[in-house]
Every structure is written in C-alpha cells, then in structure tokens.
C-alpha cells in the first residue's frame, strides 16, 4: 500500500513542477526574445518483484526447499527531469523604434544551433541574449533594458551618442559616419546554454561558442532594425498543456486520498480487537 502512496505523491510533485514551468512560459508569452522551457518527464527505475518462500517435503524431518518466482515489475513513479529551452525562431514584430533589433537566423550548420547578441552584465562578464529590445543610456551607450552594455565584435561597449543610428542587415551600426559591427555568438548546441533570468544566457562548462560567426562557419543571419523577435511561446498550446497537467495532478490527488482512507480503515477498523 505504501508503494502506491509514494507513487501518487511523486506524480503530484512532478505535475506541480511542470505546472510552474508552463506558468512561467505563459507569463513571458509577450516578452521579446523569450525562449519557452520544455519540461521532460522521466520514470523512476523499474523494480522487479519476486516472491520468496519455501516448500516442506513430506519426510520424517520435514525438509524444506526454497520456492520462489517472479511476480512482475513495479513502476515507482515519475519525476520532472529538467526544463530545456526551445530555441525555435520567434515571429518578428515591427515596432518603428530605432533601438529595437531582431536577430534572424537564415542558415545554421547545426539543427540545434542558435545565435545570440553579446552583452556585458554588471560584473563585467559576457552574457548572451535574443532580446533586442535595446535602449541608449545617459552616457550614449547602447544597452539592454536592464542597463547591460551591448558589445561590438571586439567585445567593447557601443557608444551611439544618441537614439539616431542605422543598422544594416549584416550587423554594421553607423553613427555619424563611424561604423561598428554588432558582436554576435553562435553555439552549435543551444541546449548547453543556461538561463540566468531577464532574457540572459550563459554558456555551461560543456558548451562551445563561435564568436562573431560568418559565412566561413556556415552561419547566415540578418539584423532587422525597427523590429523585435517575439516570444516563441504558443499561448493556446500552453494553456491546453496547463489544463492537462492540472487534471493529472487532480487524479494523483484522488489516488493519494483513497490510499489515505484505506490506511485509516486499516488502523481504526481492521486492527480493532472486538
């Protein structure tokens, strides 16, 4: 009985984690450049149940021999293994704002590869983002909406001096006749990127990055000024998955309640000595 109790509880915990992941996706359905997390469920190791016993041989000494056999397998529940971001390209939205930039992947050599803008966080460390909702700070530097510097191909902050500048499709930014090239990075395996929040990613220890990729790396892209990349969250699909996850949670809850009632009867009624 206790095995079923723990199996139902494990199912509830897994569904709760999945619901939190889906809720976070829905909350960021309109966040530019947001990449939806996809939860993966996995079953706990399967156990093999075996019956153990013995038989008494009708002899003078009552000799016993082992008597066992396979009963079958037992699944011990499920858990949410991890949440992996989906780096599918989001749709583009025209904003008319000159500091908004959308990074469009035209060609990548790896199916799971992805491109990113290079930015610098408050600790001076390089981070990566798909959110091109940029602005210009009081000193004239191009920054993210959190104030992180947007970097050029040399890893230096870009000083535009104001909101008026042009960006070509190949990423060349022109300010008063002076040209800068936006810094980009490409990873052949986007699953190695770790979310840090606020649209930022960092590279895991196992990951690999190509700085300032180009045609020689088999990477083709374009920069669209006055546009933003939308979130790749599908609100309708996410809402349906949230409802299914909630129903699954309720089913496990009913099973858990039934086991609890059975255990109560075993303690208060079956075990009572009349």
Strand and helix map with partners:
Layout: H1 2-27, E1 37-43, E2 47-51, E3 54-56, E4 64-66, E5 69-74, E6 78-85, E7 92-94, E8 101-107, E9 114-120, E10 126-129, E11 135-136, E12 142-143, E13 149-150, E14 166-167, E15 172-175, E16 178-181, E17 184-187, E18 193-197, E19 200-203, E20 210-211, E21 220-225, E22 227-229, H2 235-270
Antiparallel strand pairs: 1-6, 2-5, 3-4, 7-22, 8-21, 9-10, 9-13, 9-17, 10-19, 11-12, 14-15, 15-16, 17-20, 18-19
Helix pairs in contact: 1-2
Explain what this protein looks like in three dimensions.
The structure is a single chain. The protein is α+β, with helices and mostly antiparallel strands and 274 residues long. The protein has a domain at 92-229. Helices cover 23% and strands 34% of the residues. The protein has helices at residues 2-27, 235-270; strands at residues 37-43, 47-51, 54-56, 64-66, 69-74, 78-85, 92-94, 101-107, 114-120, 126-129, 135-136, 142-143, 149-150, 166-167, 172-175, 178-181, 184-187, 193-197, 200-203, 210-211, 220-225, 227-229. Strands 9, 10, 13, 17, 18, 19 and 20 form a 7-stranded antiparallel β-sheet that branches. β9 (114-120) and β10 form a beta hairpin. α1 (2-27) runs antiparallel to α2. The chain is elongated and about 110 Å long. The model has no long low-confidence stretch (mean pLDDT 87).
Task: Spell out the helices and strands N to C.
Answer: HEEEEEEEEEEEEEEEEEEEEEEH
Total helix count? Answer: 2
The overall pLDDT, averaged over residues, is 87
Question: What share of the residues lie within helices?
Answer: 10-25%
Major sheet size, sense and barrel closure: 7 strands, antiparallel
Strand content: 25-35%
How many strands in all? 22
Q: Based on CA inertia axes, which overall geometry fits?
A: elongated
SS class: alpha+beta
If you compute it from the alpha carbons, what radius of gyration comes out, rounded to the nearest whole angstrom? 29 Å
Distance between the termini: 25 Å
Given as residue ranges, the uncertain stretches (5+ residues, pLDDT < 50) are none
């Amino acid at each position: 009985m206790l095995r079923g109790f723990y199996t139902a509880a494990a199912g509830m915990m897994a569904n709760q984690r999945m619901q939190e992941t889906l809720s976070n996706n829905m909350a960021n359905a309109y966040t530019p450049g947001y990449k939806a997390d996809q939860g993966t469920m996995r079953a706990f190791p399967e156990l093999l149940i075996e019956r153990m016993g013995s038989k008494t041989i009708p002899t003078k000494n009552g000799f016993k021999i082992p008597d066992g056999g396979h009963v079958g397998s037992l699944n011990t529940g499920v858990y949410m293994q991890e949440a992996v971001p989906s780096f599918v390209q989001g749709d583009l939205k025209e904003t008319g704002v000159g500091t908004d930039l959308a990074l469009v992947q035209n060609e990548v050599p790896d199916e799971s590869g992805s491109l990113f803008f290079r930015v610098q966080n408050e600790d001076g460390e390089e981070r990566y983002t798909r959110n091109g909702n940029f602005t210009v700070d009081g000193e004239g530097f191009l920054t993210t909406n959190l104030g992180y510097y947007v970097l050029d191909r040399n890893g230096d902050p870009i000083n535009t001096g104001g909101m008026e500048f042009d960006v070509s499709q190949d990423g060349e930014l022109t300010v008063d006749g002076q040209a800068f090239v936006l810094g980009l990075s490409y990873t052949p395996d986007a699953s190695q990127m770790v979310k840090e929040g606020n649209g930022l990613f960092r590279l895991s220890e196992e990951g690999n990055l190509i700085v300032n990729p180009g045609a020689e790396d088999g990477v083709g892209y374009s920069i669209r000024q006055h546009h933003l990349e939308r979130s790749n969250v599908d609100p309708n699909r996410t809402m349906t998955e949230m409802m299914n996850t909630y129903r699954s949670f309720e089913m496990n809850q009913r099973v858990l309640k039934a086991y609890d009632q059975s255990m109560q009867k075993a303690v208060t009624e079956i075990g009572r000595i009349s």
